[in-house]
């Protein structure tokens, strides 16, 4: 018999059962990781942030009562906050770094690094493509972008997306409607019609 997320969460909360929490990690780590990669377009950062999400989930477990069978909507809500904090930290870091003088260094690239470059070529290509999509989607308001990511990219239902964002289901529906209209407008303005048009097609139609 498969143990539900709710039962595993209760064991993690009331019994500090790390094995139960480990099962939750195995079930949802890939979905959380994919969500984060689509937000930052960087494989390494997505891996690090996935660890942060589950660490935050463990730390907050006593404050959260899981009100549905799947823990994924709540975990994606945590992931959304984690990546927003990461962006703020990165902006502060870059601002500080820009004030530090950097000496010019002409160190040669080792053969080992050159060999390693071939192994990561596919990752770089994926990051490049994701960066292009993000540049287009980032023109959307943050609240509407979050709904697009959860409903279109993560394939959550309206109800689960609402749980992840802490908003009513009706709000998710109305934001999705605005997303479709805004993406159509971007398609008319942008030089990347194919990418934007693809984004429009994957946004779920809002049920009347």
Secondary-structure blueprint:
Layout: H1 5-14, H2 18-40, H3 43-59, H4 72-97, H5 111-119, H6 121-137, H7 142-153, H8 158-165, H9 169-189, H10 193-202
Helix content: over 70%
- What fraction strand? under 5%
Topology, number of strands: 0
What's the SSE pattern?
Answer: HHHHHHHHHH
Overall geometry comes to globular
Helix and strand content put the structural class at mainly alpha
Number of helices: 10
Largest sheet: none
- Give the low-confidence spans: 100-120
Kindly report the average pLDDT value: 75
Radius of gyration: 20 Å
Distance between the termini: 38 Å
Question: How would you characterize the overall build of this protein?
Answer:
74% of the residues lie in helices and 0% in strands. It has helices at residues 5-14, 18-40, 43-59, 72-97, 111-119, 121-137, 142-153, 158-165, 169-189, 193-202. The two termini are 38 Å apart. With 208 residues, it is mostly helical. α1 (5-14) crosses α2, α4 crosses α8 (158-165) and α7 (142-153) packs across α9.
């Amino acid at each position: 018999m498969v143990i539900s997320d709710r039962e595993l969460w209760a064991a993690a909360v009331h019994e500090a059962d790390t094995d139960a929490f480990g099962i939750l990690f195995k079930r949802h780590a890939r979905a959380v990781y994919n969500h984060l990669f689509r937000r930052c377009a960087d494989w390494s950062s997505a891996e690090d942030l996935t660890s942060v999400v589950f660490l935050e989930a463990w730390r907050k477990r006593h404050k959260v009562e899981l009100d549905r069978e799947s823990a994924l909507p709540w975990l994606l809500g945590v992931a959304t906050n984690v990546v927003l904090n990461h962006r703020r930290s990165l902006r502060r870091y870059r601002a500080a770094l820009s004030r530090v003088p950097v000496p010019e260094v002409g160190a040669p690239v080792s053969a080992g690094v050159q060999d390693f470059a071939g192994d990561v070529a596919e990752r770089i290509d994926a990051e490049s493509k994701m960066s292009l999509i993000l540049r287009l989607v980032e023109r959307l308001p943050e609240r509407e972008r979050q709904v697009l990511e959860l409903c279109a990219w993560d394939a959550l239902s309206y109800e689960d997306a609402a749980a992840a964002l802490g908003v009513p289901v009706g709000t998710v529906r109305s934001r999705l409607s605005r997303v479709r209209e805004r993406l159509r407008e971007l398609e008319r303005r942008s030089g990347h019609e194919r990418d934007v048009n693809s984004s429009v097609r994957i946004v779920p139609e809002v049920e009347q």
